[in-house]
Design goal:
The longest helix is centred in the middle third of the chain and has 37 residues. The C terminus is likely disordered. It contains 5 helices and no strands. It has one domain: DksA, coiled-coil domain (Four Helix Bundle (Hemerythrin (Met), subunit A)). With 137 residues, the protein is mainly α. Helix 1 runs antiparallel to helix 2 and helix 2 packs across helix 5. The structure holds zinc ion. The site of zinc ion has 8 residues, from helix 4.
Length: 137
């Protein structure tokens, strides 16, 4: 498994990303509190509501990213990191460097995107199934 040589590098990347998200998450929750004087004007109130909505969607994205990072870290532990979940071949290193949480090789990703547009059925993940089982054991 070639990708094992790079796993410590990616482990560091994931841990840095995770810390950054958690740090900004903490900061965001402090800024989240809307002061009463900010709500005195109707326009300010509207923009506060919009800003709140933006923060909520940002947090959802962050939560999703955190899940992907945790999954990738679990794969590093299991030695399945960098392996395509579909064809089980190594994912291109250049692809992993651009998108460390990638689960599919470029070829399978393209195929999956075509299939996704054809049907709404979710794809089965062999590798994820195994890693989640081991994680909870
Ligand atoms: Zn593949």
């Amino acid at each position: 498994m070639k990708q094992q040589n790079n796993s410590s590098k990616f482990k560091a990347i994931f841990e840095t990303q995770k810390n950054e998200i958690l740090a900004s998450h903490l900061l965001a929750s402090e800024e989240f509190q809307v002061k009463v004087e900010d709500l005195s004007d109707e326009n300010d109130h509207a923009s506060a509501v919009i800003e709140q909505g933006m923060r909520m969607s940002l947090r959802n994205r962050e939560v999703n990213l955190l899940k992907k990072i945790d999954l990738s870290l679990a794969k590093i532990r299991l030695g399945t990191f960098g392996v395509c979940e579909c064809c089980e071949e190594d994912i291109e290193l250049s692809r992993l460097e651009a998108r460390p949480t990638a689960e599919l090789c470029l070829e399978c990703k393209e195929t999956a995107e075509i299939n996704e547009s054809k049907s709404s059925r979710g794809r089965q993940s062999k590798v994820v199934g195994i890693s989640l089982e081991l994680q909870t054991a």
